[in-house]
Amino acid sequence: MTLHELTSNAAKYGALSAPDGHIHVEWSVTENNQVVLRWTESGGPHVEPPSREGFGTQLMKAMISGQLQGRLAFDWRPEGLACEIVVRTC
Question: Could you tell me if residue 69 is left (phi over 0), alpha (psi between -120 and 50 degrees) or otherwise beta?
């Protein structure tokens, strides 16, 4: 659900709304059994932090922090959104 929300927003407002836009997704597992997913947008329109937190962001935070006891961090860089999601494995 979180990746769907990130993709939808990228298509509407971010990197995927521009012909030269790109998304780079990478993931890794840390020594203490955490999965780290990094989402980085580039080549899209200039980005500024939103003035308010929308329903999709609230939903993502609730799912990641509430259900998975993880964390979700947004970095609103001028060249595109960078997002890091960290969740613990079993």
Answer: left
| Mean pLDDT, range 86-90, rounded to an integer | 87
End-to-end CA distance of the chain: give it in Å, rounded.
Answer: 20
Question: Which residue range is the domain that position 35 belongs to?
Answer: 2-88
Question: Is residue 5 a contact partner of residue 60, using CB atoms and an 8 Å limit?
Answer: yes
Give the Cα separation of 15 and 80 in Å (integer).
7
46 and 17 in contact (C-beta within 8 Å)? no
Q: What is the pTM of this model?
A: 0.91
- Number of compact structural domains in the chain: 1
